[in-house]
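Researcher: Here's a chain I'd like modeled. Treat it as a single chain, no partners, no ligands.
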Amino acid sequence: MAATDLVATRRQLLESGKSGKLDAAGLRQVLVDLHEFWLTSKGAELGIRPDSGFAIVAVGGLGRGELLPFSDLDLILLHDDMPPDRISEVADGLWYPLWDANIPLDHSVRTVPQALQVAGEDVSAALGLLEARHIAGDEDLSTLLIGGVRQQWRTEIRDRFPEVVAHAQDRWRRAGDIAHRAEPDLKNGRGGLRDVQLLGALAIAQLTDGMASLRPDSPGAGPQVAYGRLLDIRTELHRIAGRPREQVRAQDADEIGAALRIGDRFDLARVISDSARTVSYSIDVGLRTAGNALPRRGLAKLRRSPIRRPLDEGVVEHNGEIVLARNAIPSKDPGLILRVASASARTGLPISASTLSRLADYAPELREPWPAEALSDLLVLLGSGHHMVDPIEALDRTGLWGRLLPEWGAVRDLPPRDAIHTWTVDRHLVETAAHAGSMTTRVSRPDLLVLGALIHDLGKGRGADHSIVGAELAIQVGNRFGLWPQDVSLLSEMVRHHLLLPTVATRRDLDDPATAELVAQTLGHNRVLLELLATLAEADSLATGPGVWGEWKASLINDLVRRALRLIDGGELARPEPLSPEQIALAESGAFSVAITPTDGPHTFRVTMVAPDRPGLLSKMAGVLALNGLRSHSATVQCHADSAVNSFVVVPLFGSPPEAGLMRQQLMAAVEGKIDVLARLDAREAESPIPTIGSISTAPGAVAGTGASAGSTDPAVDGAGHPKNAVPALFAVAPPRVIWVDLESHAAADDAGEAGDVLMELRTDDRIGLLSRVSAVIERHGALVRWAKVATLGGTVVDTFCLQMADDTPAARTALADDVIAVCPPPQPRADPDGDGPQASGGTSRSGVPIS
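Model: Modeled as a single isolated chain. Structure tokens:
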């Protein structure tokens, strides 16, 4: 067959593909067979036969057996050190007919040692040669090359691995992320065809299995299925464009979707995003697994194996990944999925692929409504800012996220209809929640803020007004999460009206009194709902795309909110809880007492501490809890009959809480000055082996407490019975805030305090022994804590202290607020989305603490 016949036959095959006689996979296979036949025939004419000392080896698409309509022919003429004249004769006879027929050709002529030398010097060449395949001629020569390249790759991978990673990252920087690109590069982009081929190269090096442990029923169904979809799309792209092309252009998308029977361009974009995100997740796992599996040399062989450091009940860190503890039983622990995800978010460590696989295989569904502990772990995950993105993506790619939120399937990989949106709808929801996580201290209900951010567009893709549909779904989701009925209604209203403030602020006359009245009436004069919507509007805009949120839009919405607030009555104040008869009896006894009782949750306990009241007592009580690895999710602080009666709802980091008698002895020792609680808390943070991001997980439910939100990373205890190696929250996501309320001037101040009292509300992310530190600061300033309500909603602390100030002046309040904020975790800088460097994670700075 002449080369011109080869071209004519190729043309006929493309017409067959255009008419639907050949699908994409069939077209590729026929093209492979056609070119192999031509090369074999031509090689025989030129004397390229067994034992001839020549071999034709294919790399690239022909080597993989997936030749596209307009792909180059990547060929190597391999020879066994033949005479130059003979080499030139064979090479010219092979290459010139292809050149004359205008068939794209990438060729080389080499001996086996020469090819191995090139593979050893150039990563791109090595990756190509790993896919080499014998076509014609001396098969022993081809086998020598293919086997040699693979052996060389396995031998040298330890030294070449950093270069391999840098090569992939450079390609991603040039081509971008396929899943969120308007015109994605299917071949070179992140999540594209090259990444699956890289997984194959890592598998040849015996560093990974190449499959990323994805189940067949996972979204994308594993990297090989995703690879096939992207390859089919690229095949049709070549055929439609009539030339080699890697980027899917908008004008070709409808035709490609129709040819593959996918649908229109939006359906095609959804398939591309789904496949690319599956591949992207798989390459992340593959590179991480490969890095951990690299062979050691020299003294590194003598290094001890990585130890397992506990992070939460049933969750440990091992070799830089989140894995399950040896005694964890996923089939009996439905909350384990969320504990794993929250541990990943707050430490910044990835979840092991094997752990995700075990959870997918064995973890049961959470019962509805969810246990309070599961809700709290979800809130910790959502409150971790942009550190939540990777854990949620890992859960989603392995099918676990859809179990928690079945409604997610309707928006997964759903492309936006408006070009202003950067992300797919599901990723936009995650990005909105991530931005909201850096704003939690602006609102009184940080839990509802991050939940509302996560589901505010959940109604999209259902053929109706997404705000109305989403409001109904919010009720469904809120009831599943186990929220109180009034909170379910508030969550639904957030979703229903999440566009209200941006729409009214940008389209109505703000100077018209009817505009603010419209907003107030629409929201039922609900102050909490208004502040939630104002913060959600900013997070939603920031997650939409560049330039959507700016000074102009922010000023309009802030002006509208201020005008609407004037029409809304002040919100209700926190009030002390009434003491139970048992607590009153303990207080009147005047003795030290510590009682531990179980609650509704399997890992949640109530600790009641009673002691003669004295300055510094609250700090010592909270410190004793923290030193024993008890994380508090709510607390009430009160006095009766000259005794402090403090009740904490706590969750042990592991197992059961210590004996009440031991904690009573520790409390007495702390009161007598034999134990410096704050010094031990500082030492515990300094000794922590694993820095964490955001807040320590708290058991959920009602309000969660600050006091002892730390845990221990090692079940061992020191000589005093305190757990070692606690894991602190070194960085916060949202900036801390202190808000003052004068009871005398507040309309809802009845029963909230007495004349001269003032309420100080602290909003911040948690850290080890925060309540102990904050109360020590209050006591150091000479203020008396009359009562307190301590709460941690997910990972955000909302604590209210009723104080009797020794010197109640603006200067004294400012000094106290500054010192309180000084013991709170500072917000961690994060990368600027525009790449201009680090920036704070949002909110007000320390100097901007609101004092009213």
